[in-house]
Design goal:
single chain; 486 residues; alpha/beta; Serine Threonine Protein Phosphatase 5, Tetratricopeptide repeat; Rossmann fold; Helicase, Ruva Protein, domain 3; 3 domains; 20 helices; 48% helix
């Protein structure tokens, strides 16, 4: 697989975003379709950790097993779903193939005929021939009791017809879900529509605790030109533009982007890596163009790119020409085909590693305003806790006391504290038979069991760039943070 640059790019994207289920499922399906069975098996297993009962993932894993002649593991993977009523019929076809491999022709016939009785499009002439008593190469006795549903009668080929091949390649029962307009592997890419979805955010800046400087920067750069167009037009400022949000993981960059869209009442398009990256050369660029077109048709619109360093990395670090071309396409879309092309399209991009983003994105008119999203201070942590607890039964709370003992916690860490406290309180409430209000000691006890995630590590990396790779002054904003208590 070392010569397949498209798959290598997807694998790198999956490595950078290990919890991105659609991306892992997409990669697993492509690996299976191209015959990299062991790699496909590993990716399906990883995806099933994220979605244990997903029938599509189970079908993919079972097909990878069957094609490797691992019939026992295939049946073990399928059996929990086959025991449930209304399971997808294609799982029955896969079970039939595995059972044939195990030599259990009677159960294989039951599974096959039961499946095609529910979905006639799954009829497989080769399987039917092998499972029909007296068919070529299948000397097995018919089952003593047929299944309750009468299977359709499949006649063996007439004597004059040539016999079917002994072991034809079985048609795949798993297909990677269509992502970013993905076409079947055997075919080529085509003109497509973006698979990103237009949302209406239910959040506003009132739902974002602290970060007043960040909110003010977003208001001036993105929101006010749309809310007060005449005033900004007098100074020649158009509604639109881009902001690069950067900071440690879990600090609330995605939450802030949704709140910006809600504050404006604009459409919100959250773009994932799987919506853009494609195994075909040139298709990723078309997907990116389709995504910008979607935002332009729904203006005013906030177009949000998370983990943007995976799409806008430094071209000097890239070995493949087609990956550099994706960066060029991104820059062209930000510029627009004319001055008004992106008017009303507000581009927000977020990254934990701004130093890996190509410097051309910081040119005026693109993502020209990097905005640092810092870890919350004590007052912000108390405000975050108030927001997280506002819909829960509460006793008298001292959020400031909890904020004092959660230094270096970001928003994601504080949510983990609240979730643990709620779980413990739910156990007490179940035993008591009534809701018991959440209290300050509950949050303090939960805070002692949660460790802050990656803030210290992120600040250590940031310190290296600020102190030793900041000749341009791009990271001066971080200087007070890295020279302080971090």
């Amino acid at each position: 697989m070392s010569d397949d640059a498209g798959l290598q790019a997807l694998r790198e994207a999956a490595r950078l975003s290990p919890d991105n289920l659609p991306l892992r499922q997409h990669l697993a399906g492509l690996l299976l379709a191209k015959g990299y069975l062991a790699d496909a098996e590993a990716e399906f297993r990883a995806a099933l950790v994220l979605a244990p009962k997903n029938p599509d993932l189970t079908a993919g894993l079972a097909e990878a097993f069957v094609r490797q002649s691992a019939y026992g593991p295939a049946l073990a993977a399928l059996e929990p779903l086959l025991a449930e009523p209304g399971y997808p019929p294609r799982l029955g076809i896969l079970a039939a193939r595995a059972l044939i491999g195990e030599g259990d022709m009677g159960r294989a016939a039951y599974r096959y005929f039961e499946a095609i009785n529910r979905d006639a499009s799954l009829v497989d002439a080769e399987l039917a021939t092998r499972l029909t008593p007296g068919g070529p190469g299948s000397p097995w006795p018919p089952a003593a009791a047929p299944p309750a549903a009468s299977p359709p009668q499949v006649s063996p080929p007439p004597p004059s017809a040539p016999p079917p091949p002994a072991s034809p390649a079985a048609p795949p029962l798993y297909a990677a879900p269509a992502m970013a307009g993905q076409q079947p592997v055997a075919g080529g890419p085509a003109t497509r529509e973006s698979t990103s979805e237009v949302e209406r955010a239910g959040l506003t800046f009132a739902d974002v605790a602290g970060m007043e400087a960040v909110k003010e920067a977003l208001r001036m750069k993105l929101l006010l030109p749309i809310q007060q167009p005449d005033l900004f037009a007098a100074y020649g400022k158009r509604a639109g533009g881009g902001v690069l949000l950067y900071g440690p993981p879990g600090a609330g960059k995605t939450h802030l982007a949704r709140a910006a869209a809600g504050e404006l009442g604009a459409a919100f398009v959250n773009v994932g890596l799987a919506d853009i990256l494609d195994m075909y050369v040139g298709s990723s660029e078309r997907n990116l163009h389709a995504t910008f077109d979607l935002a332009r048709r729904n203006r005013p619109c906030v177009l949000f790119f998370d983990e943007v360093d995976a799409l806008a990395g430094r071209r000097s670090d890239m070995r493949q020409a087609h990956t550099r071309q994706l960066v060029n396409q991104f820059l062209a879309e930000l510029d627009g085909v004319d001055q008004s092309a992106n008017e009303g399209v507000l581009v927000l991009a977020a990254t934990n590693a701004p130093w890996y983003v190509d410097g051309a994105f910081r040119r005026p008119g693109r993502l020209d305003q990097p905005v640092f999203v810092p870890p919350p201070d004590q007052a912000a942590r108390a405000a975050i806790l108030r927001i997280l607890c506002r819909d829960k039964p509460l006793a008298e709370m001292d959020f400031d006391a909890v904020a004092r003992v959660t230094e270096h916690f970001v928003g994601a860490d504080l949510k983990g504290v609240v979730d643990r406290a709620v779980e413990a309180k739910l156990q007490q409430s179940i035993s008591a038979g009534r809701p018991i209000p959440l209290s300050t000691p509950d949050l303090l006890a939960a805070a002692r069991t949660v460790r802050p995630t990656a803030v210290r590590e992120w600040m250590a990396t940031a310190r290296n760039y600020v102190m030793h790779a900041n000749d341009s002054g791009a990271w001066d904003e971080l200087m007070p943070w890295v020279k302080g208590k971090w």
